[in-house]
Amino acid sequence: MTSSPNSPNQAWVLQVTIWAAPAADPQWKAQLNQLRTIASFDDTTKTWQARLGTLDLEGLNVLQALLDAASAHGTRVRLEPAPVPEGWEGPVFTRGPDVAALLEAQADHGRPLGQLPLG
Q1: 11-19 and 40-42: which strand pairing?
Q2: pTM of the predicted model, to two decimals?
Q3: What is the mean pLDDT of residues 39-54?
């Protein structure tokens, strides 16, 4: 369920990114055991990533587990709204004007301030 920034059916998911504990560190295995069932690992960026489309009890439990793992292993966490990925079949958040503006700005990251986006 993807949509353009101006479509009436605007939706987003919460992207949670956690940097991995150092691979040589014994914490790596502990972090792996904590996260492998709720997040995916990106070997290129050395990050764990999970997407949430709702903050119901299950979503809050996943988010808490992700934050606990990052805290326990001394790694960074980033939470940010993200466009609904291609093929996503889970729940989504409704995009309000503030979130829509943030998503549009993030999607245009490489463009210098004041320069019009390419059509």
Answers
A1: unpaired
A2: 0.68
A3: 91
